[in-house]
Amino acid sequence: MLDVDATMMLDSSPGRDRPDAKRNTLLPVLCLWTGFLGFSFCHAPIPGVNEPHYLTKSLHAWDAAWCAGDFFLESSNAHLVFYRTVGALTLVTTFATSALIGRVLAYGLLAFAWQQLCTQVENDRWTGCISGAIFLLLASIGNFSGEWLIGGVEAKVFAYGFVFAGLASFLRNNFWQAGLMLGAGVAMHPLVGLWAVVAMSMATIWILLTDCRKSRCNPALAAVRKFAFHQNVLLGIALFAGLSAFGVWPALKSVLSANPKLTFQANYIQVFYRLPHHLDPMTFNTSAYVGYAMLGGITWLLNSLVRDRAAGERPLEFLSKTIVCSGIIAATGVLIGLGPRPPVEMPYYEFRMNLLKFYPFRMFDIALPLLVSIQLAMLLSERRLLSVILPAKSRMVIVAVCFGGALWLNAGRGSIDRMTDAQRADWVDLCLWVTENTSRDSLILTPKESQSFKWFAQRSEYVAFKDCPQDAAGIVEWNNRLKFLKKWGEENWNGQSYSAAVTKKLHAATGITHLVSRRWGPFDAPVVYENRLYRVYQIDEL
């Protein structure tokens, strides 16, 4: 993490804590917290889209006997800090309650950090609430690479909270606290935290070079002279490095745990098959490019309206430059991924694929709407012209309209499935039957909509499309299992059913004890459970 002098970058005053900005901040934080939680439960009813993924992994990380033999749960633990902290809730309560408590904690942290960041940028206590409502509305309209911030509970929500808190601490020259918060962000989610630190470092160098050019100083010498022995800076760097290691080390073990052949196969599967909607810019919708280009133009126009020209007041400049740098990172990702498809036709496609797997678009996806929402909120603050034109109560009307629009656009979109109430009832009944009528060492083959199977049924799965491991060997094995099932299904269909003989061979080859089917089959095997949509075949006793 690269730091610069407070007098050069932020404010000539020692620290940036303003007494008037601190007054009565509890109510805005509570409003933000309530708004984030309300949107979370409306957008993503429990279980949210990734909550079974994270919380079942958490329970297995603490209790390896739970769902022993599940391929995904026994793969590498890339987000170990989350599993060992928030994930400990799964030891003492149900998954649903763990998700509820986790959301309360995650969005409480995010609301506090959001408010801290906004009060550093604008000396108005309601800027955070207004910007939060606008952000939710912008996020509801669309995004660039599928990244989201308010939904269920998972590692990245905590990571963004720590990153925003670290950025706020950095803006008020509290470098040891910034190092602590940013290190915690990296520990929770290495990619979220590290991309934020990279963008902040780029912005720091940018401002340092600009200031030194104006004063005709040597930027390297200036940085050494002013900061090399600054206790807060050194402590911040030490805290950042120490905490980051808890997140970086498990992630590195996942990334570096395979031979080059497996790594190549895993990268190709991850970038161009499993996660192209996050990683391959050639698959992003044209509307995403147009929308973010429009947001970029809006933020450029707003910058001249909200820029604080008072001497020494430069937090908005640093925030803006940090987000511009995240845009540079994203633009670099677009250039890396730009080319013909199939990907093998791209020059140096293996090298480019290796870079794309690190989610270069992730921070920009959140950061640009964040900046626009803060800029728009600043126009309505007590210090700006619009506050004179518009009555003070109109700000709350704007918040209500934006929040209501976000809820209307997003209700249920972050759900784990797109089932009707009747379909979901059948699915849950099936899972509960499996829990009560199968042994703990059963291995179940589930249909594609099985994202919440382990959550409800508490039994191991042979493979699940949603639950893709994060280590190279695991990714390749996940793909091989899916390919094997597809090939087995094509080769063993006799025109009417799958015979008992071939089904018995499937059990022998995979260890699968039960098949859950909605459309696949029929199988010449005992049907041990059936409802309107699903059948359960027992194949281990054929």
Question: Describe it for me?
Answer:
The chain has 542 residues and is mainly alpha-helical. The protein has two domains: 6-410, no CATH class; 421-450 and 459-538, no CATH class. It is built from 24 helices and five strands. It has a five-stranded mixed β-sheet, with no helix packed on it. Helix 9 packs antiparallel against helix 10, helix 13 (260-274) crosses helix 17 (349-356) and helix 16 (315-337) packs antiparallel against helix 18 (362-379). The protein is globular and about 80 Å long.
Query: Which structural category do the helix and sheet elements fall into?
Result: mainly alpha
**Main beta sheet:** 5 strands, mixed
What is the total domain count? Answer: 2
Strand content: under 5%
Percent of residues in helices: 55-70%
Q: How would the blueprint of this fold be written?
A:
Blueprint: H1 6-9, H2 19-22, H3 26-43, H4 51-62, H5 80-84, H6 95-121, H7 127-141, H8 155-171, H9 175-188, H10 190-215, H11 219-227, H12 231-255, H13 260-274, H14 276-279, H15 286-306, H16 315-337, H17 349-356, H18 362-379, H19 386-389, H20 393-410, H21 421-437, E1 443-445, H22 453-457, E2 460-461, H23 472-491, H24 500-510, E3 514-517, E4 527-530, E5 535-538
Parallel strand pairs: 1-2, 1-3
Antiparallel strand pairs: 3-5, 4-5
Helix pairs in contact: 3-6, 3-7, 3-20, 6-7, 6-8, 7-18, 7-20, 8-9, 8-10, 9-10, 9-12, 10-16, 13-17, 13-23, 15-18, 16-18
